[in-house]
Amino acid sequence: MNEPYIQFKNVTKRFKQLKVLDDISFDIERGKITTLIGRSGMGKSVIFKHIIGLLEADSGEIILDGRRLSDIKHRDRRKLKSRMGYLFQNLALFDAMTIFDNIALPLREKTNLSENEIKEKVNDKLEKLEIIDTANKYPSEISGGMNKRVGLARALIMDPEIVLFDEPTTGLDPIRKNAVHSMISHMQKKFNFTAIIISHEIPDVLYISHKILMLDNGKILVDNPPDELEKITNPIVTEFIQGVETLKDDMTGLQNKKAIANKFEETVNQMTTHCKFSLIIFKINALDEINENLGFIFGQKIIQHMANQIGEFLPCSCHNSRYSDDMLVTLLPDAGIEEAQNCLNKFSASIKKCPDLPPQGYKPMQYSVSAGVAEEKRCGTIEDAMTPALKEMNMIGEFTLNSN
Amino acid sequence: MTFIHSTLGHLGRGTITTVRELGRVAIFSCHATLLIFTYPLKLRRIVEHLYFIGVKSVLVVSLTAFFTGMVLGLQGYYTLSKFGSEGLLGSAVALSLIRELGPVLTALMVTGRAGSSIAANIGAMRISEQIDALDTMDINPTKFLVAPRIAAAIISLPFLTAIFDLVGIFGGYISGVIMLGVNPGIFFSGIETSVGFNDIFGGLVKPLFFGFVIASISCYRGFNCNHLKPGVKGSEAVSLATTSSVVIISVIVLVLDYILTAFLI
To answer: Domain tally for chain B?
Structure first.
């Protein structure tokens, strides 16, 4: 069991008569991504402000890394803040500073790095988020989506131990929304920071989360891993999730994990009419390296291109879905394993590399696509059905990415 | 009886609020002033604010000084000519400007131009959570935003006052000597004989205090714009912080001028 990094113990907070946090208790695990969901105005940002020290609890304890926040002296609390990054809901960028200066500010104020080192570090972040052209502009001169990425860059520039993301993808287009989720997940794995995200992007955010907390009327209604969310029967929770959840992956236009799981269950239940059916799993390899070297948005473009090809070349009776960050799953009703394999072979022959060019100045990179097929044999869940296909994945295409 | 009770209660509450607010301003200003000298020294930021508070105020201060000097020359000439003492015009203009009008009018002009801007700027940063963002980045907002402004105001006000005095005397010269025909030699010798070190010293000490007051109060009002009046938030709070800081600073400058004059005379 992972040791909790942050613990809320019976925390209550009132704003005049309004009880925003009502005797709540929960743990945030070290090195994991925890997502806070809930209706607007339910106090999710208030939890963040308690963690960062902008607000103090009326009663109860907040324990951070084994120390009670209320016991930490002012000076030590400042040190603690330097271990945190915070992406504000309204971004809170300094409107009188350029984008470069906004991101460089914590480095200039809190480190002894030379101006050249700062420039290198900031430019690296700007390039990864594909906003390098905005470096000399002011926040008011760029779009909301770009400003969001500037906020992200600023939150991550100091390589913090805890990063708080207050609705990081609101207002972004599907590619950038996925790129941001992908980036959070990638950075979290790379630097092993503890991430807490406030988000309404269900189910997208569930793919990258290790734990979900739901806050409603000052109480924690959900404190579970994302896989267990569907088992919760509390009507407030189910109503909320159904209200915000979509069954379509915005970026690829394919069905999402939940939709394909539903379709799988439905097909299994109709096994009397469909005597057999198969599934094909496609996996984009080296996506992490592509994300890191060519940018998260480019990584998402490769997934989008792959999804388009699947939609174009596979028979229209197939149910195509984006199952996870780098995995696409296709369900072939009425098809046995031979038929599925034939389908895959035809697809392998026609698969093309992503036509988008990587950003200039990068060394050529390779990525490959693997695929595996499996036939459903009434074994229950989609995960079980996918296991044999995952075990026998073969490379179906290998591509080199050049910037010209 | 009820009326007396309520009036006294109102007065008492008002007094307590004022004293409490004065205490907060004092703590805020002293803390910010101490932070000017703590490591790391933010000289670059001080220079940036010197440019904004000092250099950018030169034009408006010069214009005010020029016309003030002209009016003084004009009024002084007609008053002194009644007693046949036109020769004292130079010393009358110079002493009025150096001892009183220079420091006070410079302070009031800087309050209108820079003080209001400081309060609005910091207030806008408060309502858009930029100050909270500094806090979360472990950047002390008082050291980052307030200390350099106080330092810059304290440094720039004496220089602006000196400019005011010189331009004002030039304005007095234009109206008194060029337009009304006072002898230029008498005009300047009057200044030379009447203006002493104490006058100049007093005239340049006052702006140090005024600079401190202008920057401290405008920063404080902007910094706390969300708590100035119950229920007033957002852009309305910024507007309140801006106007109230100008009014408060103007009154304090005049009161402080009297107190300092009493000590320096």
So the answer is: 1
